[in-house]
Specification:
Elements (H helix, E strand, L loop, with lengths): L3 E9 L7 E5 L1 H7 L7 E5 L3 E5 L2 E2 L5 E5 L1 H7 L6 E8 L10 H9 L1 H9 L2 H11 L5 H17 L7 H4 L4
Antiparallel strand pairs: 1-2, 1-7, 2-6, 3-4, 3-7, 5-6
Helix pairs in contact: 3-4, 3-6, 4-6, 5-6
Length: about 170
């Protein structure tokens, strides 16, 4: 896929008041291969990039969520127009792998095999949760919790709540 560049407005999801998004017009959605066709890297105003996927809207348009922290870093607000570049994400999991998580996978064959057997969306969810804190100690703690619990459950019984030890 060639990089896709377009201008778009930042909106707020009506049913989730604290979530902002970038509108992706139907023509751009088609050029990506469609909703769910591939993972993407979204770059806004040539400043901030992150892995993403397209979420469908009525009429064939789609959206990409953008966090408050990214909006602050960009100096943008809901209602502003932004320049967006979408490129194909060719990373293994479609998101960054925390160093601590990867180190456990490198050392624990059972955890690595069970993690590899998960659906891609669940893999990304676990990676984002494990990496969602600044402290390396907390990332390691989360990674250990998730992967140790993953080894305890049959794959058909794996839920995020179970991996957090809440089931």
């Amino acid at each position: 896929m060639q990089p896709l560049t377009f201008q778009t407005k930042i909106f707020r999801l009506e049913y989730l008041l604290n979530v902002a998004y970038l509108l992706v017009p139907v023509e751009i959605v088609a050029q990506t291969g469609g909703i769910g066709a591939r993972r993407l890297i979204c770059t806004v105003n040539h400043q901030v990039s992150w892995p993403c996927g397209l979420v469908g809207l009525s009429g064939g348009d789609a959206y990409i969520t953008v966090s408050k922290a990214r909006l602050r870093k960009l100096g943008l607000n809901v209602g502003n127009v932004a320049s967006v570049v979408l490129t194909e994400d060719k990373s293994e999991y479609g998101t960054e792998v925390p160093e601590e998580f990867q180190e456990i996978l490198n050392q624990d064959e059972v955890a690595r095999e069970k993690f590899a057997a998960l659906k891609p969306a669940m893999q990304r969810y676990l990676l984002n949760y494990a990496g969602g804190v600044k402290s390396p100690e907390k990332r390691l703690e989360r990674s250990l919790l998730l992967l140790e619990n993953l080894k305890r459950f049959p794959l058909e019984k794996v839920t995020f709540r179970a991996l957090l030890g809440k089931e």
